[in-house]
Amino acid sequence: MAGVITPAQPVSIVVNGVSKAFGPVQALVDIHLTVRAGEFLSLIGPSGCGKTTLLKTIAGLVPADAGRIMVGDRNVTGPGRECSVVFQDFALLPWTTVQKNVEFGLLPRGVPAAERAELARRFIGKVGLGGFEEAYPAQLSGGMQQRVGLARALAVSPQVLLMDEPFASIDEQTRRLFQDDLLSLWSEERKTVVLVTHSMEEAIYLSDRVVVLSPRPGRMHQIIDIPLPRPREAGDVRATAQFAQLVDGLWKILKVLQ
Amino acid sequence: MILGLRAGSFVAFLLLWEWAARVPISFNFPTPWATFTALIDLIQSGAILGATLTSLQSLLLGFGSAVIAGVPLGLVMGVVRPIGRVGRVYLDLLIALPTAALIPLVILSFGINIISSAVIVFVFGAPFVTLNAYGGVRDVRPRLLEMARSFDVSWRQLFVHVVLPGAMPMVLAGIRYGLSRAFVGLIVAELLLSPFGLGRLIMMSRSMFEHDRMFAVVVWTLLLASTALAALARMEVRLLRWRA
Amino acid sequence: MTPPTVGETGFDQSDLGRSGLAAIAGLLVAWEGLGWLDISMFVPPVSDIAVAWWHLIGNGTLWNAGASSLVSLAKGFLPAAVLGVLIGLAMGRFAAVRHLLDVWVNVLMSAPLSALVPVLIALFGVRDTVVAATVFLFSFFVIVVNTVTGVRGTDRSLVEMARSFGIGEAALFVRVYLPAALPAVMLGLRMGAVQAVKGLVVGEMLISLVGLGERLIYYGNTFLLKELYAVIFSVLLVALLFSQVFQAADRALIRWK
């Protein structure tokens, strides 16, 4: 259906018995997971636990060997219009401007050029890069490049946002500001978010629930509820005792798995 | 300071040349001044410009075909893996062979005319253009392809917006290197074929023992080639401005 | 210097997979077929060419021509390698030397050096020395440029580390710069080897006195197609063998990388 971009309602994701092997290496075994519509969920675990693989199967970029994934009403067999991905290394097209990069996701949706440009400009403003429309990726810092990546992902009004360690290549100060911006953008337009991360603080700060995966082979280990109140970017959540307890609890779980 | 050194080395070169001519290393060695005056003479008489035009005709015909045929072929080879695997072998062998060895064969097949020299230019330039276009496609960052897939772009959009721009640096480098090879082929062909162009002028001057003329044409040819390649390199930089 | 474009480093047999060998076999079969169909006198069957080749080996023609070519190749390439590396090292290490020579080196590297062969003939006369000189010219500049890149690409932090231990300039050069530059030097020698064989053929064809190049001109002039193809094949063999030497040396020396 060409041309029309409507503000999207978030949908749920149901992962049902998914397994994936790469040759002799079993990346995921029998994963069952339900992500509620509009929920912010993090995937965490030591190297080799398959968290990125799981994200990619939800995105439809990697086919599962067994099991089924439903995103909303759709049975996932390939990449879909309701999902958007943000990559750890930004994956920006280096030969074109910020503006054109953000417009990229709108191309297959048959959005007319003028509307594409307008949408792109709006989201470039939303991620705080107003004025940088004509810059090239090489001229931007890592944090700014990832903002472009986020703008691109949001411009297509996805119902699901999938993020693969999006802040890993960014310095800590920039990362914290970015996390807050992400939360405020998310609260403006609710989407279902699945975020893969290595950082316990990040997982707890951002999410409603944290899923811990165990490595070799990748399995569901534990799901932790994060009852911290929202909006978290407004207050000083990281300084609270509850936050510290949650981090400590998560660490105890992860320590055993290392 | 850098400019001084460069200018200095140029002066030193001229002095060395002057000395070599006067020694004399060989009776056939003209002085820089004699070469320069011969060059002016050739330009004024129109001989060198006529020869240049003829040479450029062969070059344009041969190398133009090489680019028009080679770039799309290389791109197809890069996108369609089986064709790429097979084509790669043939191209590698073709490039390993000193292309000049094929010149007598071409002359036999096509005769002594501009077609022959154009074909020779083609054979010298096309393999590099093709192989680098192929390499350029293979060079595209896999992550960018994955990103494009995640947005569910069509094959056509993928090719136009990701593969083609991503391959561009190597395609352009291949064209530049192919042109330098094409020039080599052109000169060798004309030196051997003789009826045409700058090569003919060189051989003619030599056979008439007009060595100052011969040197003049050689210098002119080298300058011509260097200028063309430098111009290409400039264009390449401008087209690839996005590189940090 | 930009990284070598595809094709400049010579044919690597290890790249040849099963599909590669199949491709070559297929080509030979198709050629044989076309030859039998007698499509053109310019496409003789592979078997006839093989016979002619064998014949030329037997009567010594190819040995003589080949030997002469190999001698010229050595006479031209060895000085180019030694001088090229030395000058490249000097240019890489000392900015003054580099600025003095870089314009010449860069211009002449991509220039059609074949245009200089008549100049060489004017210098040396119509002799086989011209061939060695052509080989030298074709390979020298490539070796210099790669060596310079290798030296200049040495990791600054390594140099600083060595200096901090009080190491002298000479030892610094031998123990830090040289090993760091070695891969680039090897690459330059490989590319130089490829260019050397091209120079060999060009030179021999233009003076038309000795070697495989001369045979190419001769069989071309006398319309002996099968023999011409046989010599082309021999030239290819020489090119592949010469480049193989450097592939092997490259692999042996860079084991630590």
Keywords for this entry:
heterotrimer; A: about 260 residues; alpha/beta; 2 domains; six-stranded mixed sheet; four-stranded antiparallel sheet; 10 strands; B: 10 helices; about 85% helix
What is the CATH-assigned architecture of the largest domain in chain C? Answer: Orthogonal Bundle
CATH superfamily of the largest domain in chain A: P-loop containing nucleotide triphosphate hydrolases
**Rg calculated over all Cα atoms of chain A:** 18 Å
Percent of residues in helices of chain C comes to over 70%
Average per-residue pLDDT of chain C, rounded, comes to 86
Helix and strand element order of chain C: HHHHHHHHHH
Give a quick account of the main beta sheet of chain A: strands, pairing sense, barrel closure: 6 strands, mixed
Number of helices of chain A: 7
For the sheet with most strands of chain C, the description reads: none
- The SS-based structural class of chain A is alpha/beta
> What name does the CATH topology of the largest domain in chain A carry?
Rossmann fold
- State the assembly state of the protein chains: heterotrimer
Given as residue ranges, the uncertain stretches of chain C (5+ residues, pLDDT < 50) are: none
Shape of chain C: globular
The CATH superfamily name of the largest domain in chain C is MetI-like
Strand element count of chain C: 0
Can you walk me through this structure?
The complex is a heterotrimer of chains A (258), B (244) and C (257). The radius of gyration of chain A is 18 Å and the shape is globular. In chain A, α6 (200-206) crosses α7 (241-257). With 258 residues, chain A is α/β, with parallel strands linked by helices. Chain A has seven helices and ten strands. In chain B, α2 (32-45) packs across α10 (211-239). Chain B has a single domain, classed as MetI-like fold (Orthogonal Bundle), CATH 1.10.3720.10. Chain B has helices at residues 2-22, 32-45, 47-79, 81-96, 103-110, 114-139, 142-150, 155-193, 197-207, 211-239. Chain B starts with a helix and ends in a 5-residue tail after the last helix. Chain C folds into two domains: 14-42; 44-253, MetI-like fold, CATH 1.10.3720. Chain C has ten helices and no strands. The two termini of chain C are 21 Å apart. The model of chain C has no long low-confidence stretch (mean pLDDT 86). At the A-B interface, β6 of A face α7 and α8 of B.
